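Standup, Tuesday
Yesterday: got the pipeline producing structure tokens again.
Today: sanity-check two examples.
Blockers: none.

Example 1:
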Amino acid sequence: MKEKSDTTAKNTVKRAHSFKTNPRFRLSFINENTFNEVWTVKMSQRKVVLALLMLLIAIGCMVATLIIFTPIRTLLPGYLKESQRQENIFNSMRIDSLSTEVSIHNAYVSNLERILNDRVDEASPAHYNDTISPAPTDSLIGATSAEKQFVRQFEEREKFNLNVLSPIAAEGVTFFTPVNGASIMSPKDGSPAEITLIVPRNAPVSSIYNGSVVDCYYTVGRGYTYIIQHPNGFMSKYSGLGSAFADKGQHVDTGSAIGLTGDNANSAQNLVTFELWNKGTRLNPQEYIPF
């Protein structure tokens, strides 16, 4: 009985003194020639995890620093500002244009070299067809004879009509009002003819657009008349001016005064006539100029 109790006491003492040790790690550097430890590091499991986390944080900081302070950041999607993106697009277009110009220059130099070295190939020149091919017809719905006749009549009528080209020539052009505070007296129907303006006395008459004075003359009973040639084939005519400022051949800017309206005390109204032409075709000024 006594032996049994002694055995039980020994087992209790062993259980009381038994404990579990934490795993430990060691990193050693050994000299292969002498097999001596040069450097060793002892770390527990917690220290290993902390070291790995610190290493990852250091690598992340290095990558962030490399991206922020170097041009690599421009490669990230959505990083560039709108102005920088537009500048890059403009530069790429310029580079493309420069490459095209270089190709044309190289071709020109190559042809010039062939001509100087008498290495020109004797070949018949190519013949180009400058006619406009007709539009393909609709295979499902054929044109009737009445439609074909209408198309022929319309083409004959509009063949030499320049009015259809005037709105195209006026694109991007802003005309200035000839006389401020003027009202239209005639025509009222908006027909393409000269318009008569009721103007204030001694009011400045301005050029509707920049151009050159091609003619300036005086007529008894009608006053001074100006004819100004503008870009894109436009020409303006001003009649009924009381005084003239610009000379023939002089360049005038948009809105610059070329003269003054009359001051006729015997007349109840001062009148100025205005005409607008484009390549020999009279236009309706009310469609191009706000009066």
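Example 2:
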Amino acid sequence: MSHNLVEELLQELSSHNPEVAWGQFLSDYSNLIYNVIRHFESDADNAADVFQFVCERLIENRAKRLRKFKGEGTASFATWLRAVVRNLCIDWHRKQSGRIRQFRSISRLSIFDQEVFRAVYENATPPDECVSLLAAQFPNTTLTRIEESRARIDQSLTVNQRWLLSKRATYASAGDVTSLDQSDGSTLALEDSQPDPETRAIDNEQRRNLQRALRQLKPDERLLIRLRFEEGLTLEKVADLLDLGNAQRADRLIKDILAQLAKLIAS
């Protein structure tokens, strides 16, 4: 569908009688929406529930979410819509197990940084989709701005918060995700597993070396490592999110990046 036709359709969806326009929208994009959903939900019954949830969120408030698309960037409406649907799928899964509350340290950052945190750290949105998704609300969004935002976010996160982010999938499956913001993550009760001071010093030094090495990677390489080891996604899911084709290719790329990291840390 051309850009002009998309604009016309979105305007009609915001009218007082959007039924015809909504029917046209579903005719044009329901297959795209459902295909994205099936990547997240293999069970047909659950996929039907997610499809209903996504459609309800897209049409609510006179299609306010859809009307955020401005068409000012390079991404097409279909590419942008895939990113929106992917985030709604994640929202649906969180509603089933309880939503993670935002860290206080993140809530003190700018609105743009908070949206980057949600897209990158919570939803694992690929870089190109992250740009197109955020550009609807922040027209000047670029990969460079997102990387600068991630640097600010990384500085705001405590060690405990990073640990909690890496373990959130485990907490979600156990139903224990009502709050990850225990006094800004600084007083979470983990005494039983706390290492001794010497071990902590070694761990901190190794972490600093790793962070320095990570900063020397390309943005897409850093994202690949974050998805696999910080988010704990499977190779199949990483390959799917980053359009790598298959898990074998993702595995080869990760091994190459790890070898590169080892050289950077040793240098």
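Quick observation on example 2: The longest helix spans residues 19-40. The chain has 13 helices and no strands.
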